[in-house]
Amino acid sequence: MPVSADSPSLAINGGDPVRTRPFTTWPIHDDAERDAVTAVAESGKWWRCAYSADELDIKSPDQLEGRSRVEAFEERFAKAHGAKYAVAVTNGTVALEIAMRAAGIQPGDEVITTPYTFIATSLCIMNQLAVPVYTDIDPHSYNMDASQIEGLITERTKAIIPVHFAGNPCDMRAINAVAKKHELVVIEDAAHAHGVELEGQGFAGTWGDVGCFSFQESKNVATGEGGMLLTNDKRLYDMAFSLHHLGRREGELWYKHFHQGWNARMTELTAAIGIVQLGRLFEQNARRMENSAYLCAALAELPGLEPCRNHPEIVKHSHHLQMLRYDADTSGRMSRDELIKALNAEGIPCLAGYTFPNYANPFMNSEETRSRFAAAGITLPDYAAYAERCPHTERACYSEAIWLEHRLLLGDKSDMDDIIAGFTKLLGK
Ligand SMILES: Cc1ncc(COP(=O)(O)O)c(C=O)c1O
After folding, report:
1. CA 20 to 30 Å from 108, out of 24, 40, 170, 322?
2. CA–CA separation, 370 vs 87, rounded Å?
3. Ligand 1: which residues within 6 Å by Cβ?
4. 31-279: which CATH topology?
């Protein structure tokens, strides 16, 4: 007999929980992070500009002493992803904003993206007074539905921002083909996709014109706050570098500013941690992949539960989140929100994630936002109307998606077995 929602055996009703031990905590750190930060603190050189190119005496590519950690982090992050150029910045949101400006996005331009993402993806568009246009998501991957892009293109469309949600790559072949045909810029939001590789196609963040990463504390490379742009395009690199450095140009006077930029420089302390965290990334990603495969094979057997599908050509996945789809009708049990509460009571941490789509955020349709655009002669679409056009996104947000954080995948098989036991207690036969 399946357990009913009011069964006294459930921890939420006072029964014994499946698990009382904590799972792996994140971020993982040890003396390496502390030593790296201490070395920078003791050097007295806390920003990248403390280092002059003239002083540089690099004896080996691994050398950190006597050189900017920010520069070294850029070099290593670019190399790890097979990119030519990198610019380290203060966070992933600003990386996206700089990418938009560097790519020449202007007020009134339209940018096609996904509504199932963190708000930074929409903000980077709207902060240029450009207009987000949304595809629905693919119901199996939760990534943007690339087949809808072409139908949304107008003469004002300038760019596409694919988001590799949870670290699972978008359909970049389709996206790049449409972009090429219509001469659109592709800016990848790779905030979840550190060290993600497709067979024979290289790494996330290098498939479009520019890729933007986040190192916010929950991310797979964590520095508290931080971000990085990757590109293979020297012109975009020069522009992004200048924009993050208040519009300065190398070799020019310090107080001469050529572009309307930001101060978005990463600190030396942040980069010191980033270098150590990057050194842990690929081994951790491999562990997440192995645990994800084991976990998902078991969870897929439960009624009403289906793990999101991975890109078929993925060889390195970050599993920033383990995404599950839950259908209460098929399970015949509780709602998604009730299931999440019951799982947490069983000692299995999980969450609903984005509880509404980007387009449903209060500011998207507010008078304050509309009047700012109107002052520039731009009329925003009625974002409330997207609810009808994006049924898969609506379902994911309001009734279907369950997120498991990547730290859970950094444990061992017994941790996976406990997660499986928790779901099985609530959904099993
Ligand atoms: C998909 C996505 N894009 C962009 C960002 C922005 O990154 P940050 O928090 O570093 O500004 C995040 C961070 O949560 C994200 O999840």
Report:
1. 170
2. 33
3. 91-93, 117-118, 120-121, 163, 189, 191-192, 214, 216, 227
4. Aspartate Aminotransferase; domain 2 (3.40.640)
Distance, CA of 233 to CA of 84 (rounded, Å): 8
Rounded Cα distance between 31 and 54, Å, is 32
CA 420/CA 297 separation, integer angstroms? 10
E strands in 148-304: 157-161, 185-189, 197-198, 202-203, 210-214, 227-231
What confidence score (pLDDT) does residue 54 get?
A: 67
Q: Going by DSSP bridges, is the β-strand pair 157-161/110-113 parallel, antiparallel, or unpaired?
A: parallel
Angle of helix 268-299 versus helix 413-427 axis, rounded to 10: 50
Condensed to tens digits (0 to 9), the pLDDT of residues 14-38 reads 999 999 999 999 999 999 999 999 9
Instruction: State the distance from the centre of ligand 1 to the C-alpha of 88, rounded, in angstroms.
Output: 15
Ligand 1 centroid–CA 119 distance in Å is 8
Q: What is the pLDDT of residues 81-112, one digit of tens each?
A: 999 999 999 999 999 999 999 999 999 999 99
The verdict on pTM exceeding 0.85 is yes
321 CA → ligand 1 middle, Å: 13
Residue labelled with tokens 């941790």: 415
Top mutation candidate among 26, 90, 91, 93 for ligand 1, by most atoms within 8 Å of CB: 93
